[in-house]
Amino acid sequence: MFHFPKMARTATIQVLSKFGSKDRLRLLREISGAYQTRSQQATWDPDTNILCPWCGCEQDTRWHRLGVCTAFAEHREPYNHVIDYLVERQSPWIELPVLFDNPDDEIITHLHCAMPSPEISEALVDNIRRTFDNQQIVAFTDGSCQHPSLINSRYAAYSIVIDLCTNEEQRQEEVNHFLSHGCIPKTLQLLGAARLQGAQNILRAELSPILEAFRLFDNILVYTDSAASISAIARVANAMSVLEFADHSEFDILLHFFRWIFRIARLKKLRRILILKPLKMQVSVTDNWAINWLMMKLLRLEIYISQQSFCLNKELVNALQTFLF
Ligand SMILES: [Zn+2]
Fold first, then answer.
1. How far is the CA of 51 from the centre of ligand 1 (A)?
2. What residues are neighbours of ligand 1 (ion), with CB under 5 Å?
3. Residue from 14, 185, 30, 22 nearest 96 by CA
4. Closest Cα to residue 104, out of 320, 310, 309?
5. Number of Cβ atoms within 10 Å of the Cβ of 297
6. At residue 83, does pLDDT exceed 50?
7. What is the per-residue burial (b if ≥16 Cβ within 10 Å, else e) of 219-249?
8. pLDDT tens-digit series, residues 109-135
C-alpha cells in the first residue's frame, strides 16, 4: 500500500457517489481492506493456508482473483478488455479501487497560476477614456467554467465586452438595427478574454473580469449575471478590515477589490458610490434585453475561443516539466 501514489480523496468520493448504496458499501469495504485475501491474512496469521479458496491452485492475491482464478473465468469474460487495460497500465486499481492523484496535477496547477492576464490594447483603452471623458462607460463581463463538478479537471475562462455607445439614443438605434437585420452592433467590442488565473471555478471566473474592468476605468458600469460576485464585492465594500472576508474562497481577488475600493474611497469619495451603485443594479437589469442577449452571445463566443485555445497534452506537459523543474 505504501508504494501507491497519493489518493485523490475528493475525486474518489465523487466517483463513489455515482454508485447505488449497496455497491458503494461493497466498494468502501474493499477500500478499507475488509475483504482480505489469504496472502494478506498470512501477514498477520502465519497458520493461514495461502492457496486460493476457490480454485486451490495458486496463491490467493488480488491479481489472482481478478485476472487468473479459473473459478471466476465466466464472470471475468465481459470485462477482459478492462483487465487488459489495467495490466497494460500497471494500474494500482488492481490492488485498490480508489482514484489517485494525477502525476500531472502539479504542473497543471502551476500552469493555471501562470495564466497571463487578458491582452488589452492600451490604444483602445486610451481611445475609450478620451471618447468618454467623464461620461460613464458600460462594460459586460462573464465567466464560464467547463466540467464545474470535476474539481481536478475543470477549467475556466472569462471575457469583457465594452459598449461603445455614448448615449441611449445610439444604443436604441443599434438594438433596432440588430432586431431588423440581425447584425451584432459594432459598438459592442471585445476588450479582453483570457483563461482564468489560479483556482478554476465559476465565481473566480466571474470576479476576475469585473476586477479587470474596474482597474481600467474609474467611472464604469459593469453588467454581470453573477449574483455571487455582486454579494462578494458588496461584502468587501462594507468591510472595515480584511479580516471580515478572510474566510472567503477567493480572498486573493477580493483583496484587490478591497485595496482598490479603499484607495478610490480615500482619493475620490464619490467614486465609491458611483461604482458600487451600478453593481447593485445588475440583478434587475432586464430593460434592454436585446443588448443583453447580444452581449451574452458575444461573451460566450469569446470565452469559447479562449477555452479552446488551451489544450494540455502529454508532450506539452513533459516539455514544461523539463523546462520548469
Ligand atoms: Zn483461484
1. 8
2. 52, 54-55, 69
3. 30
4. 320
5. 13
6. yes
7. bbbbbbbbeebbebbeebbebeeeeebeeee
8. 888 888 888 888 889 899 998 988 878
Give the Cα separation of 54 and 78 in Å (integer): 20
CATH superfamily of 121-324: Ribonuclease H-like superfamily/Ribonuclease H (3.30.420.10)
pTM: 0.69
Q: Name the residue ranges covered by the structural domains of the chain.
A: 9-94, 121-324
Task: Give tens-digit pLDDT for 206-228.
Answer: 999 988 988 888 778 888 878 88
Task: Please provide the size of the chain in residues.
Answer: 325
CA of 5 relative to ligand 1 center, distance in Å: 28
CA of 43 to the centre of ligand 1 (A): 19
Cα 291 to ligand 1 centre (Å): 69
- Tell how far the Cα of 62 is from the centroid of ligand 1, in angstroms: 10
Residues whose CB falls within 8 Å of the CB of residue 293, separated by 6 or more in sequence, listed in order: none
Tens of pLDDT, residue by residue over 11-22, are 899 889 999 999
- pLDDT computed for residue 81 by the predictor: 93
Which residues, other chains included, contact 279 with Cβ-Cβ below 8 Å and sequence gap of 6+? 210, 222, 224, 230, 233, 234
- Residue 155, beta-bridge partner list: 146
Of 212, 196, 198, 104, nearest to 146 (Cα)?
A: 196
